[in-house]
Amino acid sequence: MNGLPVDHIAVATPDLEEAIRLYERMTGARSSPVEEIPSQGVRIAFVGGVELLEPLSPASTVARFLDRNGPGLHHIAYRTEDIRSELARLSEAGFQLIDAEPRPGAGGHLVAFLHPRSTGKVLVELVQHSS
């Protein structure tokens, strides 16, 4: 396989429990435990390869996204083995980084985002899984 594999897609929702029920019913998969990530202002759960995001406060970036766009696709995430070198490669290739340095994400993984202005208007996340 060439290139970065898709890790997950993320859907913003104003009601995490309702979204979990919907995606469980739709896919037959069970939800992961709900995780709160205060540094990113969200509560999350995974149902299969879909990350469901609920804002913790009206000031969070996901709350602002919901205000502008309503519930729906929030970002696509690609898995990388070395997030720092991938950020350097993408920056050199002209992509605008939201995160110059990775930060803690769900499950203790390292994450970093690329700005939609440089990715065809799609928010892109890079994920490096913890060992």
What would you say this structure looks like, in words?
The protein has 131 residues and is α+β, with helices and mostly antiparallel strands. Helix content is 24%, strand content 32%. The chain has helices at residues 16-27, 61-69, 83-92, and strands spanning 6-12, 35-37, 42-47, 50-55, 72-79, 103-104, 110-114, 124-128. An eight-stranded mixed β-sheet has the order 2-3-4-1-5-8-7-6. It is globular.
Q: So how many helices?
A: 3
Pattern of helices and strands = EHEEEHEHEEE
| Secondary structural class | alpha+beta
Low-confidence spans = none
Rg, Å, rounded: 15 Å
Let me know the largest β-sheet: 8 strands, mixed
How are the strands of the largest sheet arranged? 2-3-4-1-5-8-7-6
Residue share in helix: 10-25%
Kindly report how far apart the N and C termini lie: 22 Å
Described by the principal axes of the CA atoms, the overall outline is globular
Number of strands: 8
| Overall pLDDT score | 95
**Proportion of residues in β-strands:** 25-35%
Break the fold down into its secondary structure elements and pairings:
Layout: E1 6-12, H1 16-27, E2 35-37, E3 42-47, E4 50-55, H2 61-69, E5 72-79, H3 83-92, E6 103-104, E7 110-114, E8 124-128
Parallel strand pairs: 1-4, 5-8
Antiparallel strand pairs: 1-5, 2-3, 3-4, 6-7, 7-8
